[in-house]
Amino acid sequence: MMLGWGVRARVMLVAVLPMLALAIVLTVFYTSSRLADLDEAHAARGQAFARQLAAASEYAVFTGNRDTLRRLAGAILAESDVLGVTIVDRNGESLAQSGRLDKGIGLPSGVLSGGQLVSTGITLRVIEPILPSTLDLDDGFASVSHRSDPSRQPPVLGNVVLDISRSRVETKRLELLFTGVGAVLLGLIGSLMLASYMSRGVTGPIRQIAQAVKRIGRGDFSERLPEIGGGSLNTLAQGVNEMAAQLASAHEHMQRQVAEATSELRTRKEEAERANLSKSRFLAAASHDLRQPMHALGLFIAELSQQKLDSGGRRLVERIAASAEAMEDLLDSLLDISKLDAGVLQPTVRNFALQPLIERITNERRPSATERGLELRARLTEYWIRSDPVLFQRILGNLVSNAVRYTHEGRILVACRRRGGRLRIEVRDSGVGIAPDAQEIIFQEFVQLENPERSRDKGLGLGLAIVRRLTDLLGHRLEVRSRPGCGSVFAVEVEIAQPDRTEEEEHATQREPGDLAGIRVAIIDDDSLARAGMESLLASWDCEVVAAGDAAELLETLQRQAMPPQLVISDFRLHGSTNGIEAIHSLRERYGQTLPAVLISGDTGPEMLRQAHAERLLLLHKPVRPARLRALLNRLFGAE
C-alpha cells in the first residue's frame, strides 16, 4: 500500500510514527505507575483505619464491653469512603457493627493472626486482627524483671472487618486515563504539526520541480526553475532546466523539419492534384470520344443483326457484337465506379426472393464456366432478403464472374447460410486462392493478381472494387477467406426479410416487352453518325422518329409536321452553349412538363451525374445497349 504514497505522506509518516510511539509508551508507563500508587495509597489508608480501630477495641473486646465497641465502630464510620465496619470475637461472633458491609464478600470463619485485603472492584475489605498488648513490669526493687517471652505469639482476641469504597479511586483512575489519552492526542497533534512543517520543507521544492516537469511535458519548453535549496534538490532543478533547454532546441529543430516536409508535401500534393485533374479531364474526354463511336457502332450492329444474312455474315455479326459487348462491359465498369464515387447512386431497397436472382446469375455465367471446363452450381434457398435487387445482382454477378475468371479447374458453388437474423450468401471456388497479405488490395481499382500482362479476357480489375463500394452503399458485410492453392470464399451478409406475396404476384404477372410501333420519338444529337444509328434502330422497331442536331432545328421540324412527340431522347453534349438538359427544357416548355425524356451521354463525370439526378431525367450512358433502350421504352409505353 505504501508503494502508492507520495513523498509528503512518507515524510509525515517517518516524523509522526516515532513521536507517537514515544508518547504512547511514556503515557502508558506513567499512567500505570500512578494507578498503582493510587491503589497502594487506598489500601494503606484502609489498613490504617482498621489497625487504629483494632488497637482501640482491645480492652473492650477483652472485657466484652459492647457499648464501647459500638461507639468505636460508629466513630470510624465517620471517616470518608468507609462503608461499614464490624468487630467479631475469636469465635466469629459479631460484637459491634456499623454501616453496611458488602454481602458479596464473606466474613472470616475464624480469627486471623495477620491482616488481609479482599477487593471486589468497587469495595476493598480490610481484615485486621485484635491483638492484646504486652507489658514489661519492673518496680525497681526486685532483682528479677518479669518479661514476656518473645517467642510466644499473643492470643488473638478477635478481628476488625472494615469495608472501604473504591469509587474515588476509580474516579481518579478514569481521570488519569483521560489525561493519558489527552496527552497522547496532544503528542499526536504536535507531531503532525511538526511533520507537516518538515514535509513542506522537503516536498515543497519537489512539488515545484514536478509541476515544472509536467508543464515541460505539455510543451511549455520555456519553463525554468529558480535555485531551490541546496544539495540534491538544487542539482535536480539545474538538471530539469538543462533538459528543458535541450527539448526546446530539439523542438525548434523538429518544427523546422516538419515545416519543410509539410511545404514539400503540399507542393507534391498540389502537383498530384493537378496531375489527377489532368488525368480526370483526359479520361473524361477520352471516355466521351470513345463512347460516341461505340454508341453508333452498337446501334448499327443491332440494326444489322435484324437483317437477313447468310450463315457467314451472321457469324461475323455475332463476333463483332461480342467484341463490342466486351468493350461496352469495360466502359460500364468505369461508369459504375464514377457513379459510386460521385455519390449519385440511390439504392431502392425492398424485400425480394433470392432464389430467382441466383438462378438468373448462374444461368448467365454457366456457358462461360462450361467453356473453361468448370462446374457452376447453386443450392436452392427459400429465403427472402432486404436489399436493392438490381445492385445486389451486380454484387453477386461480379463475385461469380470473378470466380469463373480465376478458377482453372474444379467447381464453383453459390450457397446460403443463416446466421441469426441475417443470411450469408457465399461464392466458393477451387481457384488459385489469395495470399493473406493481398486479401485487402484486391478490392482496389485495377488490381489483378493473376494478370500481370493485363490480358483483356480477364477484365480491368474493377469487379471487386465495385463489389466493395456497393456493399458499403447497401450496408452489407463483405468477407473473404482464402489460401493460395486452396480456393476462395467470398461472402456477403444481408438482412433476412419476410416474403412479400404481393410483390411475388406482380412479378409473376409482369408482361413481356410490348410492341413499340407508332411511338413518336424526337432525337437531338449533334453527331450525325450516332444520330443516324439511333434513328435507324428506332425505325426498325416501327417507331415514328424525328431527328435533329439541336433543339431549335427539332422544334422547327415538329412544327412543320404538326406531330407532338411522345418521348425526347437527347445527347448531353451539343454544339454551342446549349446542353441536352436545356434542350429538353425547351421542348417541355412547348409540349408540357410531363413529356418523358431520356438523356444520353458519354460523360461520366460526377457533376453531370448530379445534374441529371437533380433534374429527375432518365440517364443512359454511351454506348447505349439496344436491349436496355428497348426495355426503357417498354417500361414507359409498353407496360399496359
What's the layout of helices and strands?
Blueprint: H1 7-56, H2 58-63, H3 66-77, E1 82-89, E2 94-99, E3 116-119, E4 123-130, E5 158-165, H4 167-217, H5 232-305, H6 311-342, E6 350-353, H7 354-371, E7 375-378, E8 384-387, H8 389-405, E9 411-419, E10 422-429, H9 463-474, E11 477-482, E12 488-497, H10 501-508, E13 520-524, H11 528-540, E14 544-548, H12 551-561, E15 567-571, H13 580-591, E16 597-601, H14 606-614, E17 618-621, H15 626-638
Parallel strand pairs: 7-9, 13-14, 13-15, 15-16, 16-17
Antiparallel strand pairs: 1-2, 1-5, 3-4, 4-5, 6-8, 8-12, 9-10, 10-12, 11-12
Helix pairs in contact: 1-4, 4-5, 5-6, 5-11, 6-9, 6-14, 7-8, 8-9
Describe the structure.
The chain starts with 6 loop residues before the first helix and ends with a helix. It is elongated, with a radius of gyration of 59 Å. α6 packs across α9 (463-474). β11 (477-482) and β12 form a beta hairpin. It is 53% helix and 16% strand. It has helices at 7-56, 58-63, 66-77, 167-217, 232-305, 311-342, 354-371, 389-405, 463-474, 501-508, 528-540, 551-561, 580-591, 606-614, 626-638, and strands spanning 82-89, 94-99, 116-119, 123-130, 158-165, 350-353, 375-378, 384-387, 411-419, 422-429, 477-482, 488-497, 520-524, 544-548, 567-571, 597-601, 618-621. It folds into 3 domains: 1-131 and 155-218, Beta-Lactamase; 250-339 and 512-640, 3-Layer(aba) Sandwich (Rossmann fold); 346-508, Heat Shock Protein 90. The strands form 3 sheets. Strands 6, 7, 8, 9, 10, 11 and 12 form a 7-stranded mixed β-sheet that branches. Strands 2-1-5-4-3 form a 5-stranded antiparallel β-sheet. Strands 14-13-15-16-17 form a 5-stranded parallel β-sheet, sandwiched between helices. The chain has 15 helices and 17 strands. The protein has 640 residues and is α/β, with parallel strands linked by helices.
